[in-house]
Amino acid sequence: MLNASDLDRIAIDEDVLEIVPESVARNHTVLPLSWDETTIHLVIPSDAPGRTDELLTTLRFILDRKLTFEVAERSILETIVDLHYSACGSVIQNCPRTFLFRCNKRWVDLDRTDDSQLRHCGKCDTNVRLCKVGDELDAAVARGECVAYYDRTEAFLGIICDE
């Protein structure tokens, strides 16, 4: 079973987030990780014993592909699904903290790095760190890093950068 730190380190193919609709991922609490022409690799909730076959049958019908899967705790999976779909579809905008520029890119538009929580912005030629909680955000800002985050109350991704 995957834990929170495993899920934090997993690189997700952004294209698969477009193949598996957000409504399907949220309604069934599944996180798509990768895909090819015939198969999608997912993380499904571990609390579906006896219902796993039913869930996989439903998903095979909806997605029209073979499925492979791993399992994770539902509450952790809900958080990660929310983060990835919110980040994927959101435009990076100004936030209430100090900004010296406005970036119109989405998280998925930034160039990937070896670190799944770090992307590179060609517009400002700097790395941007994705933070999931306030403590991470505050620590990264204190280190002078550019930061992307999803604010549930404001429903947007923001970048903080002191450049």
From TrEMBL:
Residues 6-86 form the Type II secretion system protein GspE N-terminal domain. Pfam families: MshEN. This is Type II secretion system protein GspE N-terminal domain-containing protein. It comes from Rhodopirellula baltica SWK14.
